[in-house]
Amino acid sequence: MFEENDLGILIFMFGAIVGSFLNVCIVRLPKGQSLVTPGSYCPKCLQSIVWYDNIPLLSWLVLTGKCRQCKAVISFRYWLVECLTATVFYLFYRHYGLDWVLPAYGVMVSGFIVAAFVDFAERIIPDEVSVGGMGAGLVLSVLVPRLHTPGHEELLLGSFLAGALVLACIGLGFIYPVFCKHLMDKEDALADRMVKGLVLGSLIVITLINANAPHLPAGQAGLLALSASLSGLIVGGGAVYAMGLVGDIIFKKPSMGGGDVKLMAMAGAFLGWKLVLLAFFIAPFFGAVYGIIEKIRTKDSAIAYGPFLITGVLVSQFWGEQIITWVLNGGIYGS
Asked: How far apart are CA 279 and CA 313, in angstroms?
């Protein structure tokens, strides 16, 4: 049997290996390239990288950040992603222990790492990450119901909030074309109809599950978790979508990327409506500081917001319940 420290080391090493694959995703997904073929190669001399030069964390240090063949500089980002992924996997293990939620959250945070680095570099969040993450969150919520343990009142409140957000977004959708017709194209309109269909279908599923929740047998925890996951998906994506519509109407220009909407929908699928809504309010505190610095440095007010949404999500995941309790108790004034 492995001791706790030995298992922690193994999980750290596994995280570094996953980080090596995430580097491939970060480089190739924005270019639409295969993640499988060809194997790793130097982007400068195009020579294949042999296995002993592709060992996570170690090879970059041994080669002092340079290609063995052409001596071209290998970005420090490769080592950083491997180290970050390994560290995050280890911290999740220390927090949750050896539990089935661990691989589920491993999938989530892997998607977050890819999304953050791609967004910083390219100002996009690949659908393979966000939309794929939504699907993964829903499926894993059914397979690992402990991702969501809401009471009946919380389920009902989540479905009510999801419905209210959908109605708000539909209402804003009628106003949006009047003020921002020049921002819409046929692809946007088609995507908008598809999203509305998906959301309304999800609301029907949530309503049916929650209406029968008191009568469901104990073995149907997966169905309740699915309802909580769907509510989180709608609330997470809907909150950002509504904020973007309001921003578009006020500023007469796009104010929120669709990738951010899908990213928060993905987060909600894993964390549920309560924590993802808290993350929505936390994220601006991180984004504002960076935005001010970038505005001074580059005179550009547009920033990659995805990494700050992710930061808000992770803060909410680990300390959300304490923050909510603190706020409900009056915050500073109640101390």
From this structure: 5
Q: Answer yes or no: do 157 and 90 share one domain.
A: no
When pLDDT is averaged across residues 195-217 and rounded to a whole number, the result is 65
pTM listed for this prediction: 0.88
User: Tokens for 106?
Assistant: 């491993």
How many helices (H) and strands (E) are present in the chain, helices listed first? 12, 0
Per-residue model confidence as pLDDT tens digits over 71-87: 899 999 999 999 999 99
Rounded-to-integer distance, Cα 309 and Cα 263, Å: 8
Number of domains in the chain: 2
Ramachandran sector of residue 331 (left: φ over 0; alpha: ψ -120 to 50; beta: rest): left
Q: How far is CA 247 from CA 234, 241, 252, 257, in A?
A: 19, 10, 8, 11
Q: Where do we find the tokens 């090596």?
A: 20
61 and 140 fall within a common domain: no
The pair of three-digit structure tokens given for residue 280, joined into one six-digit string: 């929505």
User: Domain of 233?
Assistant: 127-334
End-to-end CA distance of the chain: 47
State the Rg of the chain over Cα.
22
- Is 326 part of a structural domain of the chain? yes
- In this structure, are 290 and 159 located in the same domain? yes
- Give the number of other Cβ atoms within 10 Å of residue 239's Cβ: 24
288 located within any domain: yes
